[in-house]
Amino acid sequence: MSLQGILGRTETISKRKRKRKRQINDLNDSKRSSSRIRSLIPIQYVILGFAFSVALYVNAIEEQQLALQDLLIRNDSNTRQQSKKEVSDDDVSGTSMTESTILSDDDASSTMTNAHADGSNQSSDSSANKTTTIGWVVTITGCGHDAIMDGAAVLKHSIHLNSIQAGANKFRYDYKMYAIYHPEGEACALPLKDLGYKLIRRETPVATQEIEGKFLRKKIESNGCCGAKELIKLEAYTLIDHQVVVLLDLDVIVLKPMDALFDLMLDEASPSSSDHLSNTNSTTNVPIMWQDKPIPDKVNAFFTRDYHLVAPEKPYKPVQGGFLVLRPDMAVYQEFLSIIKKGIQKPGGWGGLVGPFYGFMTIQGIIPYYYDVLHKNEAIELNRCIYNQMMDNPRDNSANDNPQDKCRTNQQECEECRTRPMGDIVSAHFTFCPKPWNCFPNDVDTIELRLCRKLHHEWFRIRSDLEESWGRDPIGTGTFQEEHFFGFCSDHGKTGYTSIAQPYGRLVPGSTSESTDEEETDEDENRGEDSKGTSEDDENGKDEPVES
Prior knowledge:
membrane, 548 residues, GNT1/Glycosyltrans_8, single chain, 33% helix, alpha/beta, Spore Coat Polysaccharide Biosynthesis Protein SpsA, Chain A, transmembrane, two-stranded antiparallel sheet
């Protein structure tokens, strides 16, 4: 074979090899592609199957929701039909569905004891029946020697017994207790928290050095019972969470509800309606002192006067500082502060009109100056024989049960408060009568002592009820006139008095009786009212004021 032939054959063989190699590569590529396709098929099936399952699940859920909605609609329809039937049945029987929520007198009394007689002071303003809560305020300016805690405990319980908490069928208003105290009285004020008082710490509202009037600036600290500290009573006007606030001293007890006063202050109708008011000798509705004075269109305050502190011919009489029912208002509060800062330049009193008399530089003078001079026809003077009864002599003198000389009111005739029946008295103030914790027997049958003895007995009765509401023995171990003092006096005088034992609101440690629920207490906050927790009274003839 020639060289050319060999080369041609070699080329042909190479071409065949290359062709076969391409065919083999193509075949391998085809196999790999086919293998990839086959591997994808199960994944597609899985995705399609999952999507189909989800669709079935969603559809099932929607069907269940529709079925549930249909069931709820049918049940709601049946419920409304049943309710209509029940209402119809009640209408037929004449029984209101709400009557089951009203306690009977016995149930209310039982509930009061179990929940603690001076228990929860929770406001009912947000409740369905919109019960109005009245703010009740005492003030403490310092720590004296009187039984401040006992006065506070009995006062609070007397208020409780005349509130809606003592029986919804009898009374309409709830209550909340406040104790406004000056820093100098902090030590004796703090225990009041355990009695359920909300404590409010207040400095004197106007510093003495800020007073412009030279006479007031120099004299106010020595005036009355407590000096400038007495002005913390004005803090009661700042309790704007309440529509009405009652300011009292700690030697006061409440014997009947004051709902008539609250009704008049909260009534949208004209207060001048005769339906609200009564003459000085009536106890229906609001017993006003003077029938010939105009009646305010809007009553912003009630008070009584202390006629014993000033000569009968004086035109402006002092307000009794231990009783004031007021409408809280920050604008009024600020106006009082402005009046005090302006002060008194001369001894003639506020505006040269109101004063001088005992306590005229503070509450007993500035209140009548505000309501008698600056803002006439905004307040009503109440009959002092019914409200804030002090057992004072209405005339200059008395002898053998017969009052003598002229009336302190500068009238020809005046009522003898000391002969008022106990059933007429709404609140009593132990100013001329000795303080109850003095264990004074008052067993001489004279006009000066008869009513005092009855009121002392009532104070101790309220204390006995309070002790019993705490699960304690309602009768003490003292033997001095045991029936009269309920066993809480072992002898005549302060040293014979048995103080209320701590802890308040529960059994005394070591007692074998079962304890009732503890009394709730309010947390400290700011904004409150009244002074020394007792009375700021005349130095002549009156029992010493309670320095609270």
